[in-house]
Specification:
Neurolysin, domain 3, 485 residues, mainly alpha, globular, single chain, 21 helices, three-stranded mixed sheet
Length: 485
């Protein structure tokens, strides 16, 4: 590969890593008064990244290059796709979006503190307008949302996504009704307090057990759990810890740990190149949802880890059996907060957000109408009355980041994850026994081989098809839930 092209590829990945570091710090340790400076810094960094990506010389280098290996062909395909989208965006818009994100994040945090959507509303309006402008600049066939969805799930369109989500909701509704008809299960942990530092220590046991390398990553705390891959050797995770909600920290860590394992699992040959990343966020979410739900809510997993949890909280769990604990872990209950939702009702939260942000991007729903629309759809889909915006329209960080088009990838991740896990269980017949002994690395090795090491060599659905024999479908997901519940 031409040295100039190779060096530009390295430079772009280095800049992306620094941008990720600045945004991670923004959500963890950045002083409150640094907001304006950080917004300007991120605007400058995003501008530099954009300028180097759209540089005409880079286009010439790509066109003149004759790739010598399959990896080089894949690398050029990914880079060319990113560049072709970038050249349609003026630098002014790129910087405006970066600054708008920084201001919106600060406003979102303040709005949550004040429990008032109106604090966030003006900054969100700016971001919505910027993203609509971005979609038009990128180009679309009449559906702006397609252009934004492409950022997270290349090749996916509203025309395909809407039927997928509608079908999923229709299949979930009778399953939820059947479970609810049995009556509520007792929550064996309700009303108990679990010291924060002991919870934190337990999550820090889980990460290395999963195979997460704490010398190539770390976990911190944030308002909303997230993960950020600066490089495969520097992966940042966060979780959140509540004294009266131990599952929040546990499953937050399992979820973000799943993301982190993927980020650490890219081939060393791909470091500092466009191949050291997932081909789609749906595939990335398949890894987090797989570890959080399919492993983390299973009997084999807790057969090993429940005694360890009990040792940390002997008084709180003294009268709690493994069966009681599993009933609490797998309790199905309509709830307000997506990240705390059970795996059966979770996709209803995604359908709600998808409908709302589709309306925002289309212009059929204004930001001023968003809170009321959220509350109405929560009542319609989940049967719940929202009492305050922190459990409603202000609960997620994604819109503060301007990530319109991201939410559907969680549902796609659920579907991909279920298919991958079902295949892993067939190909690893002793998997349940291994999990029950606390041996999680066999599953990780399978995922490394089938998914992680490939990075962006292939599109997401093709990679899943190679690993499992078929692409996107909901059969394995619905079958798994039906068997479990």
């Amino acid at each position: 590969m031409n040295d100039a092209l190779r060096n530009r590829i390295f430079e772009l990945r280095d800049l992306a890593g620094v941008i990720n570091l600045a945004t991670w710090d923004q959500e963890t340790y950045m002083p409150k008064k640094a907001e304006a400076v950080r917004a300007a810094q991120l605007g400058t960094l995003q501008g530099l990244y954009h300028e180097r990506l759209v540089d005409p010389r880079l286009g010439e280098w790509i066109e003149r290059e004759t790739p010598a290996t399959p990896d080089e062909r894949a690398m050029l395909r990914v880079l060319k796709r990113e560049r072709e989208r970038a050249v349609r965006l003026p630098s002014r818009l790129v910087k405006a979006i970066a600054e708008g994100q920084a201001h919106a994040l600060s406003a979102w945090r303040e709005a949550r503190t004040q429990r008032s959507f109106k604090v966030f509303q003006p900054k969100l309006e700016v971001l919505v307008n910027l993203r609509r402008e971005q979609a038009d600049a990128l180009g679309h066939d009449g559906e702006r949302y397609d252009a934004l969805l492409e950022n997270y799930e290349p090749g996916m369109k509203v025309a395909r996504l809407t039927p997928v989500l509608s079908s999923l909701v229709k299949k979930l509704e009778p399953l939820i009704a059947t479970i609810e008809a049995r009556g509520p299960k007792r929550d064996a942990l309700a009303g108990k307090r679990f010291p924060v530092e002991e919870q934190w220590a337990f999550t820090m046991e889980l990460l290395p057990a999963m195979g997460f390398d704490l010398e190539a990553g770390r976990q911190d705390r944030s308002i909303h759990p997230f993960s950020n891959g600066l490089a495969p050797t520097d992966v940042r995770l966060t979780t959140r810890v509540f004294e009266d909600q131990p599952f929040s920290a546990i499953f937050g860590t399992l979820h973000e740990g799943g993301h982190g394992l993927y980020e650490q699992g890219f081939s060393p040959d791909h470091f500092r190149t466009p191949l050291a990343q997932s081909p789609s966020m749906g595939l990335h979410e398949s890894q987090s949802r797989l570890w959080e739900n399919l492993v983390g809510r299973s009997r084999p997993f807790w057969t090993f880890f429940f005694p360890k949890l009990k040792a940390r909280f002997p008084s709180q769990l003294a009268d709690v059996s493994l069966d009681d604990f599993l009933a609490s872990v797998n309790k199905v209950e309509r709830s307000f907060v997506r990240v705390e939702a059970d795996e059966v009702t979770y996709n209803l939260h995604i359908a709600l957000r998808y409908e709302l942000e589709l309306g925002l991007v289309r212009g059929s729903l204004s930001v001023a109408e968003l809170e009321d629309a959220w509350n109405q759809k929560t009542k319609a889909l989940l049967g719940l009355e929202v009492k305050q915006p922190v459990e409603g329209v202000l609960q997620d960080i994604h819109w503060a980041w301007g990530e319109f088009g991201y939410f559907p990838t969680y549902a796609l991740g659920n579907l991909y994850g279920a298919t991958l896990f079902a295949t892993a269980r067939r190909e690893l017949p002793s998997l349940d026994d291994e999990l029950a002994r606390g041996h999680l690395l066999g599953l990780l090795g399978w995922l490394r081989e089938k998914i992680h090491r490939h990075g962006s060599r292939l599109d997401a659905e093709e990679l899943v098809r190679q690993a499992t024999g078929h692409g996107l479908r909901d059969d394995d997901f619905i079958a798994g839930l039906t068997t479990r519940y």
